[in-house]
């Protein structure tokens, strides 16, 4: 357990304290990232997207979506290089691409929901990239609470 100084009286208190036990001054509550299901976001965004394999409702943060794309791209390139070195025919990389197609599509739809747009916007080739790169709509929208936990 780490210690910090109180914002009111400057006494040393626990970093987990909501208020100072000596003076009662409220302390800055550490903001926890929250996923659309209300569960704190933890760990690797790639794994988080795979856990929500075919969940097309709710919202996905920009970080969750783009980190999934980045890690997915790295794995795909690694598999292609490995198969080229081993003289394979591309079956492994094709199987991997097929396996992550549905979670990638679901994450893209949830990302569109985060910008308060329908998931059908993902079908438009150029416009969808602009929408996927936009920041979240602050607060709750028709698709659920903000995954950043910001109102």
List keywords for this structure.
elongated, mainly alpha, 151 residues, 2 domains, single chain
Could you characterize what this model shows?
By secondary structure, the chain is mostly helical. It has 2 domains: 1-30, no CATH class; 33-151, no CATH class. It contains 4 helices and 2 strands; from the N terminus they run ββαααα. Strands 1-2 form a two-stranded antiparallel ribbon. The longest helix is centred in the middle third of the chain and has 25 residues, at 62-86. The protein is elongated, with a radius of gyration of 21 Å. It starts with a strand and ends in an 18-residue tail after the last helix. The model is unreliable at 30-40 (pLDDT under 50).
Quick summary:
With 151 residues, the chain is mainly alpha-helical.
SSE blueprint:
Elements: E1 3-5, E2 12-14, H1 45-51, H2 62-86, H3 91-114, H4 127-133
Antiparallel strand pairs: 1-2
Helix pairs in contact: 1-2, 2-3
The 3D shape can be described as elongated
Quickly count the helices. 4
> What is the C-alpha radius of gyration, as a whole number of Å?
21 Å
Order of helices and strands: EEHHHH
- Estimate the strand proportion: under 5%
> What is the count of structural domains?
2
